[in-house]
Amino acid sequence: MAALLDNVKGALFDLDGVLVDTAKYHYLAWKQLAEELGFAFTEADNERLKGVSRTRSLEIVLEVGGVSLSEAEKHRLAEEKNERYLQYIRNMDESELLPGAKAYLLQLKEQGVRIALGSASKNAVFILEKVGILELFDSIVDGTKVSKAKPDPEVFTLGCHELGLTPQDCVVFEDAEAGVQAAIAAGMYVVGIGSEAILGAANRVVRGLDELVA
C-alpha cells in the first residue's frame, strides 16, 4: 500500500464496515420495525441493506415482508427506525472504531493525503464525533449532501471535488459491493475492505484497515 500512496493525494472512506461497525445497530432497529409489522427480518436479509440509502433500505425491508404502505406511512416508519438507531449510537465512543481505523487515518494525514468521507449515512457527522475522528476529515460527503445512492458515483465524485482533486488522484476504501461499483464508476482506485468473494471487482482487497498500517 505504501507504493500506491506515493501517487495518491486523496483518500475517500465509506463509514460503516470500514471505520466503524454500526451495521449491528441498523439491523436491530430494522428488526424491531419488521417485528412490529408482523414478519421476521434476518441477518441474511440485512446483508441486502449494505451501502444502501435509508429510503431504499426501508423498501427492501418491506419487500422481505411483502408489505405495501403509503408514502406517508413509509416516511413515518423511516423516521421511527432512525430514532431507534440514534438511541443505539448515542452510546458510541472511540472503542467502537474498527481495528487500525484511527491509526491509518493518522498515517495518511502525516503523508499529506487529504481525507474525505463518502457515506450514505445522514448521521455520519454525529458518529464521527462520538468516536473522536471528525477532525481528521477534510470533507464530509454524506446522505445530507447527495441524492443518488451507491452504486451511483455521486458521493465519491462530490468528495473528490470537495478535496480539490481529480479521480485519478484518489483512492476509495469500501466494504460493500455497491460502493466498489460506485468508486469504479467514479474512475477511482478502490480498496475493498472485507471478503474478496464479494469485493473481487476492487483493485485490492484487505481484511481491514489494520492490514495497511505501516
From TrEMBL:
Cofactor note as given: Binds 2 magnesium ions per subunit.
One GO biological process term is: carbohydrate metabolic process
Q: Which PANTHER family match?
A: FRUCTOSE-1-PHOSPHATE PHOSPHATASE, GLYCEROL-1-PHOSPHATE PHOSPHOHYDROLASE 1-RELATED
Which keywords does this chain's UniProt record carry? Magnesium, Metal-binding
Binding site residues for Mg(2+): 14, 16, 174-175
The identity of this protein, by name, is Beta-phosphoglucomutase
What is a GO molecular function of this protein?
A: beta-phosphoglucomutase activity
Q: Which InterPro entries match?
A: B-phosphoglucomutase_hydrolase, Beta-PGM, HAD-like_sf, HAD-like_SPP, HAD-SF_hydro_IA, HAD_sf, PGP-like_dom2
Q: Which Pfam families match?
A: Hydrolase
Q: Per the record, where is site Important for catalytic activity and assists the phosphoryl transfer reaction to Asp8 by balancing charge and orienting the reacting groups?
A: 119, 150
Is the keyword Ribosomal protein assigned to this protein? Answer: no
What species is given as this protein's source?
Paenibacillus curdlanolyticus YK9
The entry sums up its family as follows: Belongs to the HAD-like hydrolase superfamily. CbbY/CbbZ/Gph/YieH family.
